[in-house]
Input
Amino acid sequence: MQTTSYEELSECIPDHRRLESEQDSKLKDQIEEFLKDLSKEKRAIFLGRFWFMYSVAEIAERLGRDEKYVSNQLYYMKKSFKKHLGRKEG
Output
């Protein structure tokens, strides 16, 4: 069964249906802060998957990279994003 990109991040962020506008704004700021520290390629991978909802294969093709590389980058970026959110909440 294939998961959607939002489901992949669900362990990192709260359910969007329960967020209030203030929390939305904080989350937006946290995402922007996380993205600014990424390389151009990593931003493209992260946004491609979690904003534009491209498949790993589509991202790999667009960037001229191997699917395994893109999958690995997503894995490590999700872990890093989760830590980033934890630092901001704590």
